[in-house]
Amino acid sequence: MARNLLPIFALLLGTAFLLAGNGLHGLLLPMRGSMEGFSSASLGLLGTSWASGFVLGCLLAPRLVKRIGHVRAFSAFAAGAAIVALLTGLLVDPIAWIVLRALTGFSMAAVFMVIESWLNERSTNDSRGMVFSLYMTITYVAIVAGQMSIATGNISTPTFFMIAGILYCMALLPTAVSSAVSPSPLREVRLDLKGLYRNSPVACVSIFLIGVANGAFGTLGPVFAAQVGLAEGAVASLMSVTIFAGAVAQFPAGRLSDRVDRRYVLAAVAALAGTVGILMMVTVATDLTVLFVLIALYGAASYTLYPIAVAHANDFARSEDFVKVSGGLLLLYGIGTIVGPTIGGPAMDAGGPHAIFAVTLVSHLSIAVYAILRSRRRAAVPDADKEAFKTLPSVRVATQQGIHLDPRANVESPSEPGPSDRQSSAA
Question: How far apart are the first and last CA of the chain?
Fold first, then answer.
């Protein structure tokens, strides 16, 4: 293990600083904006702007990185994120924040693509699973650590904006002083959304709707918590509990989906998320225990849906199409995260803070209904032919380059027909 981790230690350390800064800055903006009296619609546009920049970064960054190299790209975009973090502390204005947030999204996409491609090249087929798991662990822990740091100070001052900028800059140091050789140019993922829908209509529709729900809650969850009267530390804890609950619940839900038609599991988990959404709509935030139990259930359900839907899509795909399928689903998820905050902000302005869960409720119940309807139109994949479930990050930090890190991306093409060849086409 030490031999495998030593070449990537500097990169993983830089990743931890980067994600901590990203977690802090991403939570700080809606909380500070809510304190400043920004409308929920404008705060929702922060998420829309970030997601738009991130999707554009995923599409355009490979060419930029190819032109200037990995180390320069990493340094330039991490420094850009630091500059934006500091500017948002200086320019406390909703329009300025919306514009700057798009730049952060683009920069983060470029930086994550560099990190993931770098980790991929430094991994062997034997160590890839360990590196992938370690990268996911760092993702969860660093983001939560950045979020929870808000509980230690006062968000009305510029302090946390400066801390976020410092963390982004600290991410530069490990790779800047490392003697590791830069990796090869980024590999572009060819997307085929029509073919992806033919492969699995349930996965395509579900992934988009999951993006809508997660994008809405991920951006406006802190606004909801602040508007119902939670203290700053409680807001950070609420968002962190959601992430951790989603991470913990992935394995048992995924194992169940390996034994039962994934569409039934997808429908059941989505229905649970929708039910918790209803309860959140009528819950008064006077009993913190009840609120945190409900939000943990919400996170366990909502952040488990994405990997189940991805696994279902891969059940019907050939192993050599794993990268193409996963890249297309990631793009659909990104588009959903653009739509979600755009809808959620005006909904909260019109119906109050609890209206955010009306948006997630509609998305989750739509997933449940569509999954059940499609289960009557297409036969389930036999258990023996199912792709083994793998946990995936429940937060929006993954890019197409990260798909290559997944051990399934390196499975040799089978000589026998895959499940997609044995199953009838989608009706």
Answer: 47
